[in-house]
Amino acid sequence: MFKRINRLQTTQPVPAARLPYRVKLTAGKLYAWCACGHSKKQPFCDGAHASKAPGIKPVRFTPDKDKAVLLCACKQTKNQPYCDGSHLKHTHLEKHYR
Ligand code: FES
């Protein structure tokens, strides 16, 4: 038997943008950062991972104080959900940027 492969799904995150998103966060509020890159509500999850990248789950976090932060858009950060500058190293992903 042949294994059916869904070609619309990804196992690796796809970049949502070239630069991080500057976002004002509210203390005590629960956020879900999109880790797969498929959400249409970047940088937050809209549930798109369920059909497009089922192996990649959003990162949930709750800030302890009101603050402005840079949330990763390239989805390559090692400090999820925050930008760690990795987007500067991943210029080879250029073709994936929307
Ligand atoms: S946008 Fe991903 S590390 Fe900066």
From TrEMBL:
Q: What is the lineage of its organism?
A: Eukaryota, Metazoa, Chordata, Craniata, Vertebrata
Q: Which domain of life is it from?
A: Eukaryota
Return one GO MF term.
metal ion binding
| Any Pfam family hit | zf-CDGSH
The name of this protein is: Iron-binding zinc finger CDGSH type domain-containing protein
Q: Which PANTHER family match?
A: CDGSH IRON SULFUR DOMAIN PROTEIN HOMOLOG, CDGSH IRON-SULFUR DOMAIN-CONTAINING PROTEIN 3, MITOCHONDRIAL
Q: Which GO cellular component term is one of those annotated?
A: mitochondrion
Q: Which InterPro entries match?
A: CISD, FeS-contain_CDGSH-typ, MitoNEET_CISD
* Keyword tags: 2Fe-2S, Iron, Iron-sulfur, Metal-binding
Please state the gene responsible for encoding this protein: LOC107396432
Q: Where is the Iron-binding zinc finger CDGSH type domain?
A: 18-57, 58-93
Cofactor(s) the protein requires to work: [2Fe-2S] cluster
